[in-house]
Write a structure and sequence with these properties.
With 259 residues, the chain is an alpha/beta fold. The protein contains eleven helices and nine strands. Strand 4, helix 3 and strand 5 form a beta-alpha-beta unit. The two termini are 28 Å apart.
């Protein structure tokens, strides 16, 4: 399937940005605009997110195939990729399956390993929201606060609400497909051979998504990888420390050769 996307610039090496779970390409808009000064930047919505089509299945092989098909439709032979969390795993899967499509990878706070479920409270809160009885985001936030304590996380989740001309609320994301496919989203990655290209893993100091024990699998699948840490940041390090993140990305892509 062709993913919905936004092209931020036309000159330079193509650079594709893949967002994380419950997000959309707009979450990366500020970074995309800055990077667009150097690269031909594209931001995409994953299946069942944002404005992309809804489909059954959330396996990384399926989502990587979506990216491959979209690149083909846009006549992009190869590109740098930045992927955060779910988007990072999708980018890694694309590189492992079709290495010729990927120049350099920047993987933001995720490893190619199987994770234990940790979104149960989020799913419970989102499922209990009866959108037929809720007239606005404030009421939804009050209900969701019983399940998700962090206000910024609730704001991120509820940004998926949209209202039609009659004032009826609905989700921009396919919540049922995401919940049904959650086991696939937590799964580790596998490949017949490693990706030999250059990879930068960036981890948040306060995040547990990239732990020391995961590095064996990271380097097995990506032997030319390096790992950098951003202090005073968690899983959303690109939002918490944007200038440091930008500096790391530019340095990595520059040091690896031509943009």
């Amino acid at each position: 399937m062709k993913l919905f996307g936004k092209q931020y610039s036309e000159t330079g090496t193509p650079l594709m940005i893949l967002h994380g779970l419950f997000g959309n390409q707009g979450n990366w808009g500020q970074h995309a605009k800055i990077l667009a000064n150097t690269f031909a930047v594209y931001g995409f919505d994953h299946r069942n997110h944002g404005c992309s089509e809804w489909e059954d299945g959330m396996a990384y092989k399926e989502m990587a195939e979506d990216v491959r098909e979209t690149m083909g439709m846009l006549n992009i032979d190869s590109a740098h990729l930045i992927g955060h969390s779910m988007g990072g795993k999708t980018a890694m899967q694309l590189a492992l399956a079709w290495p010729e499509l990927v120049k350099k990878l920047v993987i933001v706070d995720v490893a190619p390993v199987k994770y234990k479920p940790h979104h149960e409270a989020v799913f419970s809160g989102l499922e209990i929201l009866n959108l037929d009885l809720i007239d606005g985001r404030q009421v939804a936030d009050e209900i969701l606060s019983e399940y998700v304590k962090e206000k910024d996380v609730r704001g991120f989740l509820l940004a998926n609400l949209k209202k039609d001309e009659e004032g009826n609320l609905s989700w921009r994301m396919n919540l049922d497909a995401i919940i049904d496919g959650y086991d696939e989203l937590q799964a580790g990655l596998s490949a017949q051979q490693p990706f030999e290209g250059d990879v930068l893993f960036i981890k948040g100091q306060k995040s547990d998504y990239i732990l020391k024990k995961y590095e064996k699998e990271m380097f097995r699948l990506f032997p030319n990888a390096q790992v950098e840490e951003i202090k005073d940041s968690g899983h959303w390090l690109h939002a918490q420390q944007p200038k440091i993140f930008q500096s790391m990305v530019y340095k990595f892509l520059k040091d690896c050769g031509n943009y």
